Structure formats: structure tokens, C-alpha cells
């Protein structure tokens, strides 16, 4: 490369290199999906098309970097990609990894949109955007806790949202009344309210809604109890 007197400005570029021998998690999250889901009239509380689109986009990212991956896990508008401890991808540069994953994910989301939302055109003022971050986890127990945290979060959010929306849709409560009814309730109370007042057995809700989606090391999308099977998921890593 030609050396010019301007070359020195490269010295101002800093590279944030992620700690060696740590597990890297890249989490992408939909930007303002509260509005995005409203604009495209996603079903409440879960839109099967939207979740399957997230899974398909994540699977393509996963397969493209399969050699570097352990698994990926998603719910709602987020996906976590869990990379192997020894990955040398982009010399572990945080900005490179984070921006590549999020742009690849977004590109796939947009290119697959019509497959999952046939006949629904994306409006240029309402395009899907995602942010992303890289986080290092120092050992397997902490990494297992990370994935368990996302799984438990899925369960808590989904049970709340399911009860909240069924009380509105099936029982005719206003959003304020529904919120008030659920205020301070435990998981078991929410399941009981759903059963007695809405006629819904939470156990019969789709597995993808209750458990989120895991792209396993073979690249399959499964909906499993992540906490119960956490050791199996990370076996060999
Ligand atoms: N109706 C519906 N909404 C969904 C679905 N999945 C995600 N969302 C919406 O996406 C939001 C995701 O939560 P957040 O990431 O905390 O909210 P956000 O609006 O994306 O905000 P930022 O991430 O801070 O930009 C949910 O609160 C819902 O409003 C779905 O399947 N159906
Ligand atoms: Mg979001």
C-alpha cells in the first residue's frame, strides 16, 4: 500500500480486542420493535410468523459461521449467538464481530421477510433495525447461567404477556385492568387466572412461545427446556 503523509491518521483507530480464551456472546436486539410490531400488526402476544422469521435469519447466520459456534438462542426480537472459547474470528475484534453479525442478521431478516409475511411490503420508513453487543464470559458455569437467564426471561415474559393479552382479548378487560389484576402475582397465580378466567391451559401453548428457540450445534431449531438440559447443550465445549 502506498505510504502518504496522511497515513499517520491510522494511529487514531483503536481496536477493542475481546479477552482471549473467553466465550463470546453476540446478542442482537430489534430496535423499537414495540413500534415495528404494531406497524406490521404482529399477533399478540406472539406472532408465529415473526418468531419463525427471526429463527430463519439466525439459522443462516449460524450456518455461515458454524465452525465458530456452539449454539444460538432467541426469543421475541432478540437472538444470542454463542461462540467457541478459542474462536479467532476477526482476531476477536469486538467491533468487527458485532457489526458483521448484526448486519448479516438484518440482511437475512429483510431478504426472508416475504417468505414469512407474504403480501406485506416493508415500508421504507418502517424498516427492521437491530443493535448488537459482544460480551465475554470467562468460564462454562457463567456461560450456562447466561443462557439460563435468557431462557427464564422468556418464560417470565411469555407467561405475563399471555395472561395480560388473554385477559384483554378473552375477558374484555382494559389494559389497565389487566395490568392491575396481574400486579404482584406469582407464576402459579398467572397460570390459575389463565385457566379459570380465560379457559386457557398454559401448558398447551406452543413450545416456541413458552421456551424460545435454540439453534443447536447441528443447526437444528429446537424448543427445549434449556435449564434442564444446560449440561447437554454445552457438552464438549
Ligand atoms: N405483538 C408482538 N409484539 C412483539 C413480538 N415479538 C416482539 N414484540 C415487540 O417487541 C418488543 C421487544 O422488546 P424490547 O426489545 O424490550 O423493546 P423495543 O421496542 O424493541 O425497544 P429497544 O430494544 O430498546 O429498541 C416487545 O415489547 C413487543 O412490543 C410478537 O411476537 N408479537
Ligand atoms: Mg428490542
TrEMBL record:
Protein name as catalogued: tRNA(His) guanylyltransferase
Binding-site residues for Mg(2+) 1, renumbered to this chain: 29-30, 77
Gene3D superfamilies noted in UniProt: 3.30.70.3000
GO biological process: tRNA modification
Species lineage: Eukaryota, Fungi, Dikarya, Ascomycota, Saccharomycotina
GO molecular function annotation: GTP binding; magnesium ion binding; tRNA guanylyltransferase activity
Note describing how the cofactor binds: Binds 2 magnesium ions per subunit.
EC number: 2.7.7.79
Keyword Magnesium: yes
Binding-site positions, Mg(2+) 2: 29, 77
InterPro entries membership: Thg1_C_dom (IPR025845), tRNAHis_GuaTrfase_cat (IPR024956), tRNAHis_GuaTrfase_Thg1 (IPR007537), tRNAHis_GuaTrfase_Thg1_sf (IPR038469)
Thg1 C-terminal domain sequence ranges: 143-217
Family the entry assigns: Belongs to the tRNA(His) guanylyltransferase family.
Domain tRNAHis guanylyltransferase catalytic: 6-138
Record function comment: Adds a GMP to the 5'-end of tRNA(His) after transcription and RNase P cleavage.
Catalysed reaction equations from the record: a 5'-end ribonucleotide-tRNA(His) + GTP + ATP + H2O = a 5'-end phospho-guanosine-ribonucleotide-tRNA(His) + AMP + 2 diphosphate + H(+)
Reported cofactor(s): Mg(2+)
Assigned keywords, A-Z: GTP-binding, Magnesium, Metal-binding, Nucleotide-binding, Nucleotidyltransferase, Transferase, tRNA processing
Binding positions (GTP): 29-34, 76-77
Enzyme superclass (EC): transferase
Pfam families, per database record: Thg1, Thg1C
Amino acid at each position: 500500500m502506498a505510504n502518504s503523509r496522511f497515513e499517520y491518521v491510522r494511529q487514531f483507530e483503536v481496536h477493542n480486542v475481546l479477552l482471549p480464551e473467553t466465550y463470546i456472546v453476540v446478542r442482537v436486539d430489534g430496535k423499537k420493535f414495540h413500534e415495528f410490531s404494531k406497524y406490521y400488526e404482529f399477533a399478540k402476544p406472539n406472532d408465529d410468523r415473526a418468531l419463525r422469521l427471526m429463527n430463519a435469519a439466525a439459522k443462516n447466520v449460524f450456518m455461515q459461521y458454524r465452525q465458530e459456534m456452539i449454539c444460538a438462542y432467541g426469543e421475541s426480537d432478540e437472538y444470542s449467538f454463542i461462540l467457541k472459547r478459542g474462536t479467532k474470528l476477526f482476531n476477536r475484534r469486538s467491533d468487527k464481530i458485532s457489526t458483521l453479525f448484526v448486519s448479516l442478521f438484518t440482511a437475512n431478516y429483510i431478504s426472508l421477510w416475504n417468505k414469512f409475511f407474504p403480501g406485506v411490503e416493508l415500508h421504507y420508513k418502517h424498516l427492521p433495525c437491530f443493535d448488537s453487543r459482544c460480551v465475554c464470559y470467562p468460564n462454562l458455569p457463567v456461560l450456562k447461567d447466561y443462557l439460563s437467564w435468557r431462557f427464564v426471561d422468556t418464560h417470565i415474559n411469555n407467561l405475563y404477556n399471555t395472561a395480560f393479552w388473554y385477559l384483554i382479548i378473552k375477558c374484555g378487560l382494559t389494559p389497565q385492568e389487566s395490568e392491575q389484576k396481574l400486579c404482584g402475582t406469582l407464576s402459579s397465580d398467572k397460570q390459575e387466572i389463565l385457566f379459570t378466567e380465560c379457559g386457557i391451559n398454559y401448558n398447551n401453548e406452543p413450545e416456541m412461545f413458552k421456551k424460545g428457540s435454540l439453534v443447536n450445534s447441528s443447526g437444528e431449531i429446537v424448543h427445549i427446556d434449556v435449564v434442564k438440559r444446560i449440561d447437554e447443550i454445552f457438552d464438549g465445549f
